[in-house]
């Protein structure tokens, strides 16, 4: 909702350094928002980064209105994500264009490529403005109002000629295709790698092979009932409850819905079980990638995932696509008999320390794994921030950023647990962080079980009184995020007064992590590249959406 420019006394402290560049302000539910000129993006962002401390470009959303296009940049601070600002950059409907934010925030490069690909906004000074999800030969921009869905996508050979040009980094380099159908790429991912001898000269991730229009499907679903089944499908590694929570948090804040404390405890317990589910898969497949350890660690990881899935099946009725959260709470209460359900969880938690010791014996103490992971895939804290990295990938580089603590939600701020960080910034450190986070998740789950056991029976409220049909105010906008297993999972929603969103944007952590791969792999060997991909724990459903 736009407002006119105001007196300097009313300016938010984050906006103060760029007050002279602000055309108007808007009211977003999560943060103050300012509107700036399209030709002042780099000037404004440089000032916000250096003087306002907004060093985290969390998400970029592009959209079309009847009279303009907009790019919305969601900026935050790594040391305090509650300090955030939305920067809105409008452009004309005819030949929409804007300065690129990538020279200031490198992570914006991929986001702007997606905006160009789907919406058609051109970004001046962009380092590599080309399509990212759709083929280079695609005709038109699918999210434009005038897009012709019936037009043919068969093009002549001359349209392909530029794709066949030699793009090697140098005359002595060799091009190597990795994927898109290969287990070491952890999904349908294609890497264009340039090799200088046995070393990696450059890596260009090619994504979009399973782009399924998840955002557009959510825009066609109702807030109350039809969107919630989709988030589980963004991360089939088992973190579905966390994905559901990301949508729930955004929609609940948008519609001003309070969740009962009892339901918050259940969400917190279920979310941490999902985190263990995801991390166990990451550990199991990493052993397979790096040391070919199929017979022990891989099977241990699958075994322990099955135990967690048994618990979640008892809770939700499903083993993978849970669809358990509801706006305002959860679908139903804990299974009966409650004592047997709690006993199953405690049995898993009690045996977990012994199992984690075995994981460390077989993985972190393994000389082969150490040789392949220590000092490989290095990612400095500065580079991690520049590319918007979060979760275990950022925390393994010493970036102490965790939304469960820094932007509290659920029941986390009532519990005793610690944020896990490592300083090495290499593949080994990322493995260590995930192993240690399993311990912290177990600590959180145990405390939740204690609370749920003693919760008064007459106060077990699982859902708030939510209207059957939700219609948030027209032009209300929000960006909300949670700490998913892989990092910051954020949702941007713009409402138009109806029961379906006008714009629904998914900010998956794997998208940013994969973009940083080129910085991490340059100068290393091909086996190091395989180890680095696995250490990022990317999931392509979250990347491509």
Automatic annotation (TrEMBL):
Bilayer topology: Peripheral membrane protein
GO cellular component terms, semicolon-separated: plasma membrane
Localization per Swiss-Prot or TrEMBL: Cell membrane
Top-level taxon: Archaea
Record-level Gene Ontology MF annotations: NAD binding; NADH dehydrogenase (ubiquinone) activity; oxidoreductase activity, acting on NAD(P)H; quinone binding
Entry-linked InterPro entries: NADH_Q_OxRdtase_suD (IPR001135), NADH_quin_OxRdtase_su_C/D-like (IPR037232), NADH_UbQ_OxRdtase_30kDa_su (IPR001268), NADH_UbQ_OxRdtase_CS (IPR020396), NDH1_su_D/H (IPR022885), NiFe-Hase_large (IPR029014)
Chain ranges of the NADH:ubiquinone oxidoreductase 30kDa subunit domain: 34-151
NADH-quinone oxidoreductase subunit D domain sequence ranges: 292-545
Assigned keywords, A-Z: Cell membrane, Membrane, Multifunctional enzyme, NAD, Transport, Ubiquinone
Pfam family, one: Complex1_30kDa
Reactions that this protein is recorded to catalyse: a quinone + NADH + 5 H(+)(in) = a quinol + NAD(+) + 4 H(+)(out)
Similarity remark: In the C-terminal section; belongs to the complex I 49 kDa subunit family.
Assembly: NDH-1 is composed of 13 different subunits. Subunits NuoB, CD, E, F, and G constitute the peripheral sector of the complex.
NCBIfam families according to UniProt: PRK06075.1
Name this protein carries in UniProt: NADH dehydrogenase subunit CD (Ubiquinone)
């Amino acid at each position: 909702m736009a407002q006119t420019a105001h007196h300097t006394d009313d300016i938010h402290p984050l906006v103060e350094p760029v007050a002279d560049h602000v055309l108007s302000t808007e009211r977003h539910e999560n943060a103050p928002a300012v509107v700036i000129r399209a030709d002042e993006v780099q000037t404004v962002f440089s000032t916000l980064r250096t003087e306002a401390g907004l060093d985290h470009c969390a998400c970029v959303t592009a959209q079309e209105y009847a009279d303009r296009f907009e790019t919305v940049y969601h900026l935050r601070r790594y040391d305090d994500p509650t300090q955030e600002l939305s920067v809105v950059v409008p452009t004309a409907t005819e030949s929409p264009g804007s300065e690129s934010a990538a020279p200031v925030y490198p992570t914006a490069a991929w986001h702007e490529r997606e905006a160009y690909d789907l919406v058609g906004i051109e970004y001046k000074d962009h380092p590599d403005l080309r399509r990212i999800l759709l083929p280079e030969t695609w005709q038109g921009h699918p999210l434009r109002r005038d897009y012709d869905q019936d037009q043919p996508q068969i093009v002549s050979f001359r349209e392909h000629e530029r794709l066949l040009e030699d793009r090697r980094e140098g005359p002595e380099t060799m091009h190597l295709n990795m994927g898109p159908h290969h287990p070491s790429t952890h999904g349908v991912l294609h890497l264009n790698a340039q090799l200088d001898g046995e070393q990696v000269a450059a890596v260009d991730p090619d994504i979009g092979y399973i782009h399924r229009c998840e955002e557009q499907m959510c825009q066609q679903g109702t807030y109350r009932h039809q969107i919630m089944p989709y988030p589980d499908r963004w991360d089939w590694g088992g973190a579905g409850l966390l994905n559901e929570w990301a949508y729930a948090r955004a929609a609940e804040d948008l519609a001003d819905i309070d969740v009962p404390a009892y339901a918050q405890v259940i969400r917190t317990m279920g979310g941490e079980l999902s985190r263990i589910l995801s991390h166990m898969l990451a550990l199991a497949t990493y052993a397979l990638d790096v040391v070919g350890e199929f017979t022990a660690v891989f099977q241990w990881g699958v075994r322990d995932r099955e135990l967690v899935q048994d618990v979640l099946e008892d809770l939700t009725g499903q083993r993978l696509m849970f669809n358990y959260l509801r706006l305002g709470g959860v679908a139903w209460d804990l299974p009966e008999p409650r004592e047997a359900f709690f006993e199953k969880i405690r049995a898993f938690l009690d045996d977990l320390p012994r199992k984690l010791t075995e994981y460390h014996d077989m993985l972190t103490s393994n000389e082969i794994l150490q040789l392949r992971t220590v000092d490989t895939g290095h990612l400095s804290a500065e580079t991690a921030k520049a590319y918007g990295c979060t979760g275990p990938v950022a925390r393994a580089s010493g970036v102490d950023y965790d939304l469960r603590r820094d932007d509290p939600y659920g029941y986390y701020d009532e519990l005793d647990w610690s944020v896990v960080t490592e300083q090495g910034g290499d593949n080994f450190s990322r493995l260590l962080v995930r192993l240690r986070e399993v311990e912290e998740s177990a600590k959180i789950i145990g405390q939740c079980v204690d609370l749920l056991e003693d919760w008064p029976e007459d106060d077990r409220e699982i859902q708030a009184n939510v209207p059957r049909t939700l219609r948030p105010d027209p032009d209300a906008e929000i960006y909300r995020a949670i700490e998913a297993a892989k990092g910051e999972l954020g949702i941007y929603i713009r409402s138009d007064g109806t029961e379906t969103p006008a714009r629904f944007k998914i900010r998956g952590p794997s998208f940013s992590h994969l973009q940083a791969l080129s910085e991490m792999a340059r100068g290393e060997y091909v086996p190091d590249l395989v180890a680095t991909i696995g250490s990022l724990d990317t999931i392509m459903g979250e990347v491509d959406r």
